[in-house]
Amino acid sequence: MKFGLIGEKLGHSQSPAIHTKLFQLLGIQGTYDLIEMNRRDVPNELLRLKREGYIGLNVTIPYKIEVMPFLADIAHEAQVIGAVNTIYMTGEGNFGYNTDYSGFGRSLDHAGIAVQNKDCVVLGTGGAARAIVKCLYDKGAKTITIASRNPQEKPEFTAFAQKLKGRMVSYEELADQKDGDVLVNCTPVGMYPNMDASPIAKEIVAYYSAVVDLIYNPKTTRILQYAQQQGAKTLNGMYMLVAQAIGSEEIWQKRHIDNAVIEEIAKEMEKQYE
After folding, report:
1. Peptide bond into 193 cis (omega under 30)
2. Which of 24, 62, 237, 250 sits CB 3.0–4.6 Å from 214 for a disulfide?
3. 139 an active-site residue?
4. Higher pLDDT, residue 9 or 197
5. Which residues fall within 8 angstroms of residue 55, CB to CB, at 6 or more apart?
6. CATH fold group of domain 2-97+240-273
7. CATH top-level class of 102-236
């Protein structure tokens, strides 16, 4: 069985390692390739990959939106989020899903971070932020606040957030808010090699009882250090990275994969960032 990741620049991707470990654990005969695709010819590229025998594709920047017009159907959550990160290629057509959404949900459950009736804050408006906002909404968050450096310049994201009862604020407005329960960092601030940076000040982090950072390199970012010093629950991005990959495999393999498998792979992957 052939699987792969389509994108523009893929040299740094952890996806092959995650999927290969899964194949080994579950005894699956499969390969997982990095496929740098021709951006100018998406429909024919998808046809080519199907002819070459690919069953499933993960999708990353810049194709998460660009592939959508060429899919036979798209799962509801992916339609709302406006992005696809998983394609299942079948005889009936190519079908799109978003497992960032389910991967984040599984991450929260794994860490014991409840969001129902909680005041939640999301930092950033990038691709992952949409899936996080949708997941928080579906899990019953009381409020969802999204912080952006220039919220007035993000009309599309603002419209998306408002449909899910979210509101946009600047970082200055967030600093004045002085309350909250769950904080999720969807920005790259604090990622290797700029590990001394935090998207918000330590005094603001102190308002939250749970902090999630989608970054996994380093294992403990500066914002997570601030949270741990205050006794908050914390979670980095490795479990979500693995969980979204496993979510794709569940679609392609037509089977449930136990969370213990996610934990085992995540622990092994995390060792390289300690």
Report:
1. yes
2. 237
3. no
4. 197
5. 1, 2, 3, 88, 89, 252
6. Rossmann fold (3.40.50)
7. alpha beta
